[in-house]
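User: Reviewer 2 asked us to show a designed sequence for the structure in our supplementary figure. I'm pasting the structure tokens here. Could you produce the per-position amino acids so we can include them in the response letter?
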């Protein structure tokens, strides 16, 4: 009797399986380490650039608002007010003015072409915070009131200086600006902003410093129409 030939049994040995698992674990570990390093690098980049983005957003708002200043006075009433507060080693200034929007009024889908705007420092929870003030309705006290929005926390300096227009080319900066006395806007505003940011790769914080120069176009003082006054009389 002739027996049929035995079929060969194909498969992996235990050693082959262990080697494959070892190679797979090494590959997965390498991919995981690379992914972790990429995520950690991304977080470091975001953390290091966060102050730049914050300062850029703040200066962008400040620049667009100041460039849109509407008028500096009417009937000897200033519509631009600047204050500076000098401490032992720092400055915390403020500016209030009337600006041209357009700004959307929150009570409805209405655009306010002119509104009250201000930038000032307030203390909150032991920290100095830079706020932007906005009032959509111009009232009898246009340099105060409205709602405030936090811009930057842990501010160590907010300094504003004002450049006087000069036909002779002389450069002179002032800490304050009296629009009624000067009868004009400053030629430009120089803003400095310092605030605390997390230190890179270590505990504690660092002071980051930013500066920008904002030119202001010349605009006239608001005058009442004398012909309308005579007609009313």
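Assistant: Here is a per-position design you can include in the supplement:
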């Amino acid at each position: 009797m002739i027996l049929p030939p035995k079929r060969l049994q194909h498969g992996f040995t235990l050693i082959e399986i262990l080697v494959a698992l070892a190679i797979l674990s090494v590959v997965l570990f390498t991919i995981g380490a690379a992914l972790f390093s990429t995520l950690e690098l991304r977080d470091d980049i975001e953390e290091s650039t966060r102050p730049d983005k914050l300062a850029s957003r703040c200066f962008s708002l400040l620049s667009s608002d100041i460039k849109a200043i509407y008028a500096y006075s009417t009937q000897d009433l200033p519509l631009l007010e600047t204050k500076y507060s000098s401490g032992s080693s720092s400055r915390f200034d403020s500016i209030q003015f009337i600006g041209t929007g357009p700004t959307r009024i929150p009570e409805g889908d209405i655009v306010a072409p002119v509104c009250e705007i201000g930038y000032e420092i307030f203390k909150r929870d032991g920290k100095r915070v830079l706020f932007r003030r906005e009032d959509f309705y111009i009232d009898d006290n246009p340099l105060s009131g409205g709602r405030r929005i936090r811009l930057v926390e842990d501010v160590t300096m907010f300094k504003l200086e004002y450049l006087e227009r000069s036909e002779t080319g002389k450069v002179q900066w002032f800490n304050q600006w009296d629009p009624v006395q000067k009868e004009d806007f400053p030629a430009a505003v120089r803003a400095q902003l310092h605030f605390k940011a997390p230190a890179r790769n270590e505990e504690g914080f660092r002071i980051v410093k930013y500066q920008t120069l904002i030119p202001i176009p010349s605009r006239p003082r608001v005058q009442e129409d004398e012909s309308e006054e005579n007609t009313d009389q």
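For the response letter, you might also mention the following. Confidence is low (pLDDT under 50) at residues 224-233. The longest strand covers residues 110-124.
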